[in-house]
User: Fold this.
Amino acid sequence: MAEFFAQTALLWPLGIPIAAAALCAALWSSPRAQRTASMAGLVLTLVASLLLLSQVLSDGIQVKQFGAWAAPFGISFMADPFGAAMVVISSLLALAAGVFGFADLRQRQVRSGFHPLFQGLTVGVNGAFLTGDIFNLYVWFEVMLITTLGLITLDRTRAQLDGAMKYAVLNLFSTILFLMAIGLLYGVTGTLNMADLARVLPQTEASSALGVAAMMFLLAFGIKAGFFPLFFWLPASYHTASIVVSAVFAGLLTKVGVYACFRVFTLLFEVEDGGIRTIVALVAAGTMLFGVLGAAVQWDVRRILSFHIISQIGYILLGLAIATPLALAGAIFYIIHHIIVKANLFFIAGAIHRATGTYDLRKAGGLMRSSPLLALLFLIPALSLAGIPPMSGFWAKFMVIDASFRGDAAWLAAVALFVGLLTVFSMSKIWIEAFWKEPPRAVERVRKVPLAMTAPIAVLCAVTVAIGFNPEPLIAFAGQAAETMGDRALFIAAVLQERHIAGATQ
Amino acid sequence: MNLVYAFAIAAQMGCGIYLLLSRHVVRVVLGILLLSAATNLLIFVSGGLINTAPPVISAGSETLGDQAANPLPQALILTAIVIGFALVAFAAALVLKTYRALGSVFTDHHNAAEAMGSPFVEESSNG
Assistant:
């Protein structure tokens, strides 16, 4: 039995949410049963992903060939430490969102299909993290896209439909670019398996088709991840969704784009080639700077936080621009820290809305007196986002900025530090307006924040503080993950075990 | 042959991009439709355009012959068509719903989302 689970560890983080999604859809008429099935699915997915991570850490890269078609002909799934860690952290976040949903979800939203769509989103995200086939990655992107569109338009308000329209058009455009890039890449190399591509591409002569394909990958993932000149859809749509949905989007979706970008530009292409490094560096600086500047004038908590997603993506991209093992480790650390902190800030925005009845900071206030616990819980992720020690954000920023000084990119480090300062400005704006100032309307009925909201916020805060006070294990892990991620030979050896078959693609 | 296809795909993508830049949301959806069709053609061409036999393994042998066509691009295109169909169908429904809710098909009238918490809008709604 144990051996069976060990052999199929790679499949459970996908299989469980698929089963849960089907079950939730079958239980359509009974919201309560849907909730039970959904929670069971989320807990089991977290357990399965933890098992997968422990197996990856003890045995190295895990590979599964679907339908027993030998690589590179069939579809391979693979889990390296980076991918497995992403699955764990996204499952943890999904579970936190599920618990938060107890207090936040309305009956009408469940009746619009929240649970099946949410499980479907988990399938898409985990699939994107675990696949070893570039076309299969496209399919998972589309699974994510269609479920997120359903989740954004859960209430069908005017703002949601408007946001969903922008989200749909730009993300459809991005997946079309992605598909074109795959088509061009296939035309040049004749293979779609990522490990096989990693083997074939260094021997392939540089051609214009390859250059165009690389640029299209960057553009497609850039739209998904919210890179600098391509991010405008993000703050126009994320804040309109229900807060559970917004939190999961904020934590996960852009990071899937970043993850794909890291995979493609470490395994398939080199950032050194054809000036990609310069482009990525400029984009990273622009992403950091314009994200944080956009946040400065906004008054809706969710819009401020949406703009901050973009500026934080810039820091992660900084790691790819430097592309030394140290910088990649910093970026991995940053992604893990950021997923937790950003989702948590959105959860807190939901709690602020529950307590004051508004997301608009001009109308909120007085929370310091009415819910001091919430104020404390806000402070932890807010300070962490700004990079104040001893929170997790300090170590994350320290690692990427240290790497950029060592990588002769001091100007990027300067931008990063300046943006950190502006982040403090936005966070203190939320603090002053929502928590510190007197409520603008005198007769304010203070509503209690339910435990189902406080509990996931507190757990995520605890993770942030734990990373902050004891960063050593995570830094060591990020170093190991970055080393594996940058080593093509490891992937090629793990996926293409049968050499004589691999040779047949020549 | 490749050149003819290249020009055809370029023309189709040009039309798609042109429609995508329109303010009219129905045109935008049609633009997406054209672009995804052109992408399918692109995959088809990059799979190689040569006169070949159908990819059927003849009795007695275990592998395809040298002259057989590559079946993979067709499998890719089929997948992409199905996915594209589903997403365009959803987008069409979304356009209809947006038109009914916001009362306009022009994107410059669609500003309900960005008005939230904007410093330039006095009293914003909380959707």
